[in-house]
Amino acid sequence: MSAGEAVIAIVGLALITLLTRAFFLLPERDMPLPAWLQQGLRYAPLAALMAVVAPEVVLSQGQLIGTWQDARLPAVVVASAYYFWRRGILGTIVSGTAVLLGLKLGLGW
Amino acid sequence: MPRMTDAVEAPAPLWRDPEFARGAREMSGVSLGIAAWGLVTGVAMVKSGLALPLAVLMSLIVFAGSAQLAVLPLITSGAPIWVVWATAICVNLRFVIFSAGWRPYFAHLPFWQRLRMGYFVADLNYVIFLRRFPEPHPAPGQLPYFWGGVVTNWSAWQLPSLAGILLADRIPTAWGLGFAGTLALLGLMYSLVSDRATLVAAAVAACAAVAAYALPLKLNIVVAIAAAVAIGLLIDHTTPGRAEPEDDLT
């Protein structure tokens, strides 16, 4: 792909960001959502987060990880324990990342 | 800046509103994770072979991390442009779902304002906004809260992403720093689990996302959302007294 084509591709990607994020915000006409859908949408953010997190934790190269010696598992356990102890997201990130780095750099996991 | 056509008294700027600070503060909890993720994405853009000016352009105007990562190998290997775009649309399908959730809050606003808000709003803005305003009606404070979160998220993403692009060779990706982003999402996810229905929905989403991982274009995320919404509705409708939560909560 030439640089010019790449620029066109990237500008198109920006438009796709705009159109997908604003999709149902764009129509002018009144567009009442069915009540059940409105109610069901409250589960969408939770599910989207979980859908990103779960594969990142238990898969590697698309396969379930087959060893306990994977730094991500203890990192998630410690981060979860911190969250339910203190309910702070910053500490969750810091404690989990500290365990991850410790195991990767210290033990070479 | 928007024109103040009917301003009898000039409204206070949004950023002076206390809800702006609150939106910024509640987003700042996950900012460290967003920043680590942005940094790793910036590094990945350059390491994949994308020229530096193109990487900067992509970071600044595309502003959608998952889509950027998904299309990078396609752009650098010279895939047809429509394949690049189709991939991004599929990866972004979750935003279309979220946009339906935004509509009851913001449909009354002028078109260009809705367009602007849509462009800047990322996943975590939706999550945090819904936690603050669970009732799907317009209410005072929503706009400043929205922009406080959006400005914080944008900065927490763009600055590290640009740093990653410029310092790509000096940042050790083998350390797995991107996992900090995953931990941020994990903590945020926990904060949304409030009862049995949300707990079950989260577990179902996790299983669905892993089971459907082999699907192309990150469509496993869409599958997981659909499965979680379905199981959530099922629980709402089979649990006595849960069917119409809007009427019960006052």
What does this entry show, briefly?
The complex is a heterodimer of chains A (109) and B (250). Chain A contains five helices and two strands; from the N terminus they run H-H-H-E-E-H-H. Chain A has 109 residues and is mostly helical.
Summed over residues and divided by their number, the pLDDT of chain B gives a mean of 86
Number of helices of chain A: 5
Sequence of secondary-structure elements of chain B? HHHHHHHHHHHH
The chain pair with the largest interface is: A-B, 73 and 100 residues
- Rg of chain B over CA atoms, rounded to whole Å, is 20 Å
Number of strand elements of chain A:
2
Low-confidence segments of chain B, ≥5 residues, pLDDT <50? 245-250
Tell me the major beta sheet of chain A.
Answer: 2 strands, antiparallel
Beta fraction of chain B: under 5%
What does the overall shape of chain A look like?
Answer: extended
Classify the secondary structure makeup of chain A into a structural class. mainly alpha
Distance between the termini of chain B: 38 Å
Helical content of chain B, roughly?
Answer: over 70%
Taking all Cα atoms into account, the compactness measure Rg of chain A is 21 Å
Order of helices and strands of chain A: HHHEEHH
Number of separate helices of chain B: 12
Secondary structure category of chain B: mainly alpha
The N- to C-terminal Cα distance of chain A equals 38 Å
What is the 3D form of chain B?
A: globular
Report on this model:
- The complex is a heterodimer of chains A (109) and B (250).
- With 109 residues, chain A is mainly alpha-helical.
- Chain A is 69% helix and 4% strand.
- Chain A is built from five helices and two strands; from the N terminus they run αααββαα.
- Chain A has helices at residues 3-22, 35-40, 44-58, 72-86, 89-107; strands at residues 59-60, 63-64.
- Chain A has a two-stranded antiparallel sheet.
- In chain A, helix 4 (72-86) runs antiparallel to helix 5 (89-107).
- The radius of gyration of chain A is 21 Å and the shape is extended.
- By secondary structure, chain B is mainly alpha-helical.
- Chain B has helices at residues 18-47, 52-62, 65-76, 81-91, 93-106, 111-120, 123-132, 142-166, 179-192, 196-211, 219-238, 245-248.
- The radius of gyration of chain B is 20 Å and the shape is globular.
- Mean pLDDT of chain B is 86; it is low at 245-250.
